[in-house]
Structures are given as C-alpha cells and as structure tokens.
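Journal club prep — side note

Before the paper discussion, L.F. wants everyone to see what a predicted structure for a comparable chain looks like in token form. Sequence:
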Amino acid sequence: MRKFIIIPLIFLLSACWHGNDPRPRMVNGSVSTNAGKLCVKAPDASDDEYILYVDVFDYKEQKDIASLDFSANPVKLDEKTCLPSPDIQYQADDKYAYRASTVLQKKQAKKINPHRRTIVATFFIKDVDGDKQAVDVLNR
C-alpha cells in the first residue's frame, strides 16, 4: 500500500523543481537621488546584458505612471552607472516601484532559461529641506 502512495508522491514533487524555469530572475537594485534625478543601480551585470523595458509603478494611483521601451535598440547594462529612468515629477511621501527588464543575449541565443532578469527597486520619496530624496524601502 505504501508503494502506491510514495511513488506517485515522488513524481509529483520532482516536477516542482525543474531547472529550466523560464520566469525572469528578480534582483533588488539600489536607489538614490543624484542631482535631483532618480538613480537606480543594478547589483551586478553580465557583459551581454541589455535593458529592454523600464516601468515606474505608483502605489498611490495603483498603476504604471511611466515606461520606456528600448526593445528596438536595447541599452547595455552597466552596474557602475544609473539605469535609465523616466523624467517624471515624484511626489513627496509617495511610494513607487522601479522595474527594469533585461535580457542576457548569449543565454537567449543558446535557449538557456532564465535568460531574462528584472531589476526592482521599491522606494519612498522624502522631502528633506526642499530636496526630494529616494529612500529604499528595504533600507529604511
């Protein structure tokens, strides 16, 4: 009787952990302000990683308020420089989420999954003496 229960259970559980998961890997980016502009940096970058899309989500409005599409001409990801961000007016004391979707071109060419990453930064905008500063919700 145990064989009839254990063997199907093993097959069911083994299907949960396959190594070719196509979902993009999510990583946390660091966020700051630089000369009044939002600056999001990736924790690391591969030499063949390019940015395809950037979105900014406003938690107060519960929708994407800005997006950039680089799919026609992808932008090379560099961990030392700020990622591209839409030029919008952020409101003090509001919460936002920045998402950059990237593609690893060598992995994509070889059909290795996951070949995409999503760099995410969730932040508040604080008004400090008239200067708006981004504060990462993970490092409050």
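L.F.'s comment for the group: Residues 21-139 form a domain with the Immunoglobulin-like fold (CATH 2.60.40). Keep this in mind when we get to the figures.
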